[in-house]
Structure formats: C-alpha cells, structure tokens
Write a structure and sequence with these properties.
The complex is a heterodimer of chains A (111) and B (159). By secondary structure, chain A is mainly α. Chain A has two domains: 77 residues, Orthogonal Bundle (Arc Repressor Mutant, subunit A); 34 residues. Helices cover 68% and strands 11% of the residues of chain A. Chain A has five helices and two strands, in the order ααααββα. In chain A, helix 1 runs antiparallel to helix 4. Chain A is elongated. The termini of chain A are far apart. The mean pLDDT of chain A is 88. Chain B has one domain: 2-Layer Sandwich (Alpha-D-Glucose-1,6-Bisphosphate, Chain A, domain 4). Helices cover 25% and strands 32% of the residues of chain B. Chain B contains five helices and seven strands, in the order E-H-H-E-E-E-E-H-E-E-H-H. A seven-stranded antiparallel beta sheet of chain B has the order 1-7-6-5-4-3-2. The longest helix of chain B is centred in the last third of the chain and has 16 residues. The radius of gyration of chain B is 18 Å and the shape is globular. Classes of the chains: A mainly alpha (111), B alpha+beta (159). The interface between A and B is medium-sized, with 29 and 29 residues. Chain A: One of its GO terms (molecular function) is DNA-binding transcription factor activity. Chain A: InterPro entries: ArsR-like_HTH, HTH_ArsR_DNA-bd_dom, HTH_MetalResp_TranReg, WH-like_DNA-bd_sf, WH_DNA-bd_sf.
Amino acid sequence: MEDDDRVFKALADPTRRLLLDTLLAHPGASLTELESAVAAEGVTMTRFGVMKHLKVLTEAGLVVTRRDGRRTLHHLNPVPVQLVHDRWITRFTEGPAQVLADLKHTLEDQP
Amino acid sequence: MSSTPDDAAPAPLVPPVTTTQVYQVVIRATPQAVWDALVDPEQTRRYFHRALIEVVGDRIVSHRPDGALWTDGAILELDAPHRLVHEWRSLYDPVSAQEPASRVTWQIDDRGDGTVLLTAVHDHLDGSPHTASSVSGIGWTTVLSGLKTLLETGEPLVP
C-alpha cells in the first residue's frame, strides 16, 4: 500500500480521528489514558479495539510510540498530513503565485 | 465534589502540554545524505525556514539569510550519521530567547530498504512554553517534509 493510501485509510474512521484529537491535546498519552478518552466520548470499545486502531495509525506514521520505563507513550506525528498538504496545496498555490508575480512584472515594467 | 468512587474513576489524562514533541518521516536516502543535510548550511537554507545551520566547534548555530543569529545551542551528543542531540534556544523571538534551553534529538535509523526513518524529538520544554508553542506543529512539520522533498527530488518545496 502506498504511504498516502495508509494515511487516508487511517483518517477515514471517526474513532481513529478521536484518538488523534486526544493525542493532539494530550501528547504522550498511554493506552489506558486513550481508552478513557474514547470511553468519555461515549464510544464503547475494548482495550484490544483501541490497540487495533492505534496499530493502523502507527502503520500510517500518524502515531509514534516512545518508551518511558514500563510505559508506552503515544504521540501524534503530523508530518504525514503535512506531506499530503505539500502534495496538493503547496504545489497548487505555485500557479496563482506565478500569475501574481507575472502581473507585478507587467505592471512595474510599464512606462 | 465528585460522585465517582475512586476505584471506578477512569485514569486521568496527562495535562495538555507539549513539553515533548515527536516528529517522524521516512526518507528515500542514505543515512549519510540525511546527516549531511542536517548540518550543511547550503542544504538547510532550502528546507529549514531558510536558516543556515552549521556545527561550530561544540555548538550548532543557525543564522538567517540576513546574517542575524537565529538559534544557538551546545551539542550534547554526536554520532554521525546516526544521532545528534543538541540544545535549542530560539533567539529569533525575544520572549523565547529568555527561556531556558530545550533539547532536540535527531535519530537516523537505516531501514535497510534504501530508506531511513528520521525522528526529531523536541523536549525539555517544560520551562519554555513560548518556545514550545512557536515550534510545535507546522514549525517542525514543514522542516521534516521539506527535508524529505529536497532529498528525494533535489528541489526545495519553496524555491
């Protein structure tokens, strides 16, 4: 699977987006803390279910884990989303930017 | 007052702080190429917010294109081309410049398939909230995505 496919597939699920929102607000959350966050939103899910979603997010590069003693800490990694942005948005803006640059030259070159 | 008995209370979430920020990207390049890109001002200016970054003795310093000192920090660990740990002090902003030095760790892991996993961890930010918020999110993500684009295409995202 392509990297972009993994990112879009991972984002195409409300529970996984909830997990990412939780990690944005609470960097370094543990599995237990993420379980609580999901439950607090009224989503019924087993610990194994949360782990499965975290695995999809990790494989897409959207979640990075670190060890702190016996605890595994989870962090949101926003770089894959930035790459998606770069691919479609940054390149898209090059055209209009060039039009404006050309217009500037045209106007300034007028006598 | 809480109506929830302690034994039934959910585990409290960690406080909403960004004292440890983790950024990661896979780059199709050799570890040496990634390392060189981190410490070569001719390359850093093309992806690191135009900053010219270089190792000077036991420090890593960066300048803006106009020559102003941008960041300056002691190198804490250097194991080319795998690991670089250094202090971070944002001198580009008067409030951040007054905060204690934080720490940036670069880890370059060879994935054995022609790609490397580059991880940047910015931590020790507990006493530097202004620095933490100024570098978080788009500050670091554009650096890592820009570095990937530069190494894989030879062209910077922003000319």
